Amino acid sequence: KAGVTQTPRYLIKTRGQQVTLSCSPISGHRSVSWYQQTPGQGLQFLFEYFSETQRNKGNFPGRFSGRQFSNSRSEMNVSTLELGDSALYLCASSAGALQETQYFGPGTRLLVL
Amino acid sequence: SQQGEEDPQALSIQEGENATMNCSYKTSINNLQWYRQNSGRGLVHLILIRSNEREKHSGRLRVTLDTSKKSSSLLITASRAADTASYFCATGPSYNQGGKLIFGQGTELSVKP
Hints:
The complex is a heterodimer.
Chain A: E1 5-7, E2 10-13, E3 19-24, E4 31-38, E5 42-50, E6 53-57, E7 64-68, E8 74-78, E9 87-94, E10 103-104, E11 108-112
Parallel strand pairs in A: 2-11
Antiparallel strand pairs in A: 1-3, 3-8, 4-5, 4-9, 5-6, 7-8, 9-10, 9-11
Chain B: E1 4-7, E2 10-14, E3 19-25, E4 31-37, E5 43-50, E6 55-58, E7 61-66, E8 71-76, E9 85-91, E10 102-103, E11 107-112
Parallel strand pairs in B: 2-11
Antiparallel strand pairs in B: 1-3, 3-8, 4-5, 4-9, 6-7, 7-8, 9-10, 9-11
């Protein structure tokens, strides 16, 4: 099976702009989670989607939003970008059951200037 | 928020030596996972250990879990230069937090040829 794919891999934006990142899970996986990784804060959970419903949300401002489509693909959006949003954004997928391993994509590296 | 701490933060060894990394966490868990990350790329899943398991092996990897001490360790035997990476423990998924993973801050392992 193909792994988790994320597009784009690299992105440069300026403050105030918005950005949309995409994640395609492993075929058959229904759960998609998003994480932000920065040198200062490490890996932080953003949100989790399962069957198009947000199942869990991390402690991030409302500028961070996401959605999941009927084919399990997911997007996350960050509006009004700030310099501190520069990070590696990682997507993970799992079959959905609570005992399942989560598999990560290669990430999207976002640089906000 | 970080679930716990990893120790040491950095570890440098010679090829052929064993590497041990420790992870402590704060709350009760259902599962604990170990991941590897090479140079800011995606996370590679290594092992998932459930709360009712005490030890698990996968190739040169051995993971132990002590729920009474809220700690886990990852042992890499006969290390190779290719093992150079950052290693993260993560608690989750869990019944009360769904698929959310809470990561430690990681251990940077350097294996010198």
